[in-house]
Amino acid sequence: MSSSERPIGALGLIGLGTMGRNLALNLADHGTPLVVWERDADLAALAREALPETTTWTDGPVELAAALPAPRAVLLMVTAGPAVDAVIASLRPVLEPGDVILDGGNADARDTARRQAALVGSGIDLIGLGVSGGEEGARFGPALMAGGSRKAWARVAPALTAIAARAPDGMPCCDLLGSGAAGHFVKTVHNGIEYAVMQALAESYDLMRHGLGLSPAAIGDVFERWNTGPLQSYLVEIAADVVRTRDSDGTPLLDKVVDRAGQKGTGRWASFAALDYGTPAATIAEAVFARAVSARAGDRRALATGSPGPISLNFDEIERALRASTLAAFVQGFDLIAAADSAEGWGVDRVAVARVWRAGCILRASLLDRLADAARQAPDGAMLLHAAGLMSEMQDALPGLRRTVSAAALAGYAAPAMMSALSWVDGMTRARVPADFLQGLRDRFGAHRFERTDRPGSFHADWSGS
């Protein structure tokens, strides 16, 4: 085995903010020697108090590279964007062929592909490493989604596999999911699905709180009960905690939270990607737009004409609506991964994606075992609803989704995740849609031509109405 194929003896880590510091602690706990650099003095001081004395501290990229045994591996935990480019530029002159850079931030996959292309010919590999699980996951077991060279991955895999979360069957939630920017793209889609599921949960809360008049404590009981069934997931689990949390005066804390949802960009990237690859991921996109609506607080308050009224729904109907919306979001996400993989040639195995997401990450849920089964059954690249089990699950939940969306619309509740999920399912399960009419309009005003059902070819017609 050549030196460039040996597992790393130590790991360089640049960036000791919340995620970087907790990953460093996790790595140290599992026996990986660390060589670190943090440019912010306050963050460095905080990390020094927590990291073991065996940690090697450096003053910059040159010293960090010199302190690492060759071939080197350096994990970047810095803010996505220009900061990543700056750190790579500072490392490149002091790294050598066979060295590996891992970008553990929430990078746009297009940036990762650009950075990997820029390193071609240098002998230095860049692995895009999606890290999910938040602060707690980083400290005690994240889900890790890697993309890049298999040879480079083999060198860092033992250290990263050791710190990853374990699924219920003991499998580590850490894998090389494909070449190129596959890891960061899969993480982007993970976050897009996360947006959609959170929005569907928010709509469920809204309907129960304001449509049914339930107290937050009662809604917490409903979420807790749902978490024992098909909806079992980390997000449903913490939804119960969030609605039950009280402020210091004993009132529900949610009532004092400004109704403006933040976002860091990954949901938008997933939506852009869906448009770029021609994939209908409407529930993911609508969840992003819902956050944009929430940000328009001034307009909302000026335009408000009152509050929506009561609704007539039962818990089972709302639970089924949430199940159908959640399933739609996941299927859309996996469809987007397949479309991107087909275009980019990364070699992504969707079964492996589902396995990696089963623990450690924000999307961990019992549904992922069923999605993995569907990915095994569905033809390569096909939408996962082609698997009989998932389609049966959707058909079981669909009446509740239809009833909930109807009640919400009639009472004046915005439910974009649920409504878009229903439109998506209805569109995808209809053999003929009114795109024939769209083609007629396009040919009428722009001579864009159309295909016929009765013979092959491309046609233009006189649409004058006669």
Write up this protein.
Strands 3-2-1-4-5-6-7-8 form an eight-stranded mixed β-sheet, with helices on both faces. It has 19 helices and eight strands. The protein is α/β, with parallel strands linked by helices and about 475 residues long. Helix content is about 55%, strand content about 10%. The protein folds into three domains: about 5-180, 3-Layer(aba) Sandwich (Rossmann fold), CATH 3.40.50.720; about 190-430, N-(1-d-carboxylethyl)-l-norvaline Dehydrogenase, domain 2; about 440-465, Up-down Bundle (Single alpha-helices involved in coiled-coils or other helix-helix interfaces), CATH 1.20.5. The termini are far apart. Helix 1 links the parallel strand 1 and strand 2. The model has no long low-confidence stretch (mean pLDDT about 95). It has helices at about 20-30, 40-50, 60-65, 80-90, 110-120, 135-140, 150-165, 180-210, 215-225, 235-245, 265-275, 280-295, 295-305, 315-345, 350-355, 365-375, 390-410, 415-430, 435-445, and strands at about 10-15, 35, 55, 75, 100-105, 125-130, 145, 175-180.
How would you briefly describe this protein structure?
The protein has 466 residues and is an alpha/beta fold. The chain contains 19 helices and eight strands.
Question: What is the total number of structural domains?
Answer: 3
Per the principal axes of the C-alpha atoms, what is the gross shape? globular
**How many strand elements?**
8
Contiguous helical run count: 19
CA radius of gyration: 25 Å
CATH-defined architecture of the largest domain: Orthogonal Bundle
Name of the CATH first level of the largest domain: Mainly Alpha
